[in-house]
């Protein structure tokens, strides 16, 4: 891969002595999601999800890749838990596949539930904290056939699922997250169509967002009732928007970008309202909201999960909106995303300032894709090491500025099915050879392991 500028490469994972990273109670973990790693899509009663349908549709994913086998984690989970525990991390973030644990008529699927019970029990036995997401984008297809997240009925089906699974797995989960990245589910799923189910109407996206958030709020009630010792939160992806145009139009474009990516989700959760400027950006797309919905959505949270990847440069479109314009000469990842650690610091400090009731934060995803290759059983992912160093330094700066960040999860534990980009994009700190399913620790994994061993040896 050719980069547009010199790429920062590093050989060492070395937080400075005064970094929050050295604090033993600063949780370090790795993250995955069900459809991206499990495979076994038709086993033990799992029913189809929107991602099975979407990825099997020609033209929707790179090279026509699907999650049918993925990392075969459904069969290899014991070895994977072993690998994970050997990294010395304190926590693992995973998601539950709704179509694996619930039948089409809403009954628990015992075999699917047993998979997660065994997995969580094994993780706990290794001393790992378990961060479990209920919905990482794999809606049962039969619900999409009824309109999916655009249909209010899906909200109630999601609440039933949350109720059922939190009863089944109570006591095995340290932290429940209701949703992963509702922005992507709503916008990419129903607005741009880049993700399943591939619908393209901004009014669908805003209605889907409202229903996702309402489903979150109802799920929170069940999680609290069924598993009172666990923490309850949600995971949002956030974006940093800046403009090379320092004039008023450029600055408004950047503001609008962040409003659309961040405040669209955080305002309802933390202020019980949508930012009204959204309806100028998307005329006619205001969702239908029923009385009482915003109070349900705005229920107090124990934590907020933040996923951060890159910065976007925007300019005004000359009307109500903005246009994304790629900056030249900046460091980028295999995804084409700009490496911009200061965006993470900036956003965290801004949220802390703007939301007085901001709950404690976990960085639930951060990481990068590189076109890693195994050479002599070694993967020298020096750009990733540098990326992690710089983003963790940004987190440290935010903590020093007063933001309550309690932990950081690397995306991802292992290379996996990167949605519309299939298997080409490698985000793991563990390399996966998809032909043999062999796992190889990349240097980033080895260095993080070494650092965590040093940290725990410190008095
Ligand atoms: C996030 C997703 C995660 C992964 C990373 C790269 O948007 O939550 O599943 O695909 O991006």
TrEMBL record:
Catalytic activity: Hydrolysis of terminal, non-reducing beta-D-glucosyl residues with release of beta-D-glucose
Keywords tagged on the record: Carbohydrate metabolism, Cellulose degradation, Glycosidase, Hydrolase, Polysaccharide degradation
Documented EC number(s): 3.2.1.21
Chain ranges passing through the membrane: none
Active site, per annotation: 365 (nucleophile)
Top EC class for this record: hydrolase
GO terms, molecular function: beta-galactosidase activity
Pfam families referenced in this protein's UniProt entry, alphabetically: Glyco_hydro_1
Family: Belongs to the glycosyl hydrolase 1 family.
Protein's recorded name: Beta-glucosidase
